[in-house]
Amino acid sequence: MKKTYSIRKTEKLLRELDASRHALAYLNSIQGASLSLRKEETVKKRILYLSRTTEALEHAVGLLDPIEQKIIRGLYFDADGSVEKVCETCALEKSSVYRYRARAIEKLAATMYGE
Asked: What's the number of domains the chain is made of?
């Protein structure tokens, strides 16, 4: 199956979510620092973008089925997001976890990008 742009974009967002949270914390921590006006404006825009993106993605995850939520949260939101841990938590085989993950990402893409 060929992945649409919105599915690829959603997968990328999920992979970058943890990095985005760290970036958001960092940007918030330096916001009051002595920065040039241009750099401060860039930091503010980046904080706003990361905040909105994270909120939208978390809202979209909340709309998934409970098992899909567990899988997405386990793979992308937990610090040690390993497939083995998700398999154990959900009592599923790896193939089932990947199938649920694919379906969940399709739903997230549809929710976030209207496709």
From this structure: 1
Residue-number span of the structural domain to which 61 is assigned: 5-113
Of 26-35, 64-73, 75-84, highest mean pLDDT: 64-73
Kindly state the average pLDDT of the residues 79-105.
90
Which has the closest alpha carbon to 10: 109, 114, 113, 115? Answer: 109
The type of residue at 35 is: L
Question: What is d(CA 47, CA 20) in angstroms, rounded to the nearest whole number?
Answer: 9
Q: What is the phi/psi pair of residue 3, to 5°?
A: -85, 135
Quote the pLDDT of residue 63: 92
CB-hemisphere CA count at 13 Å for 9? 13
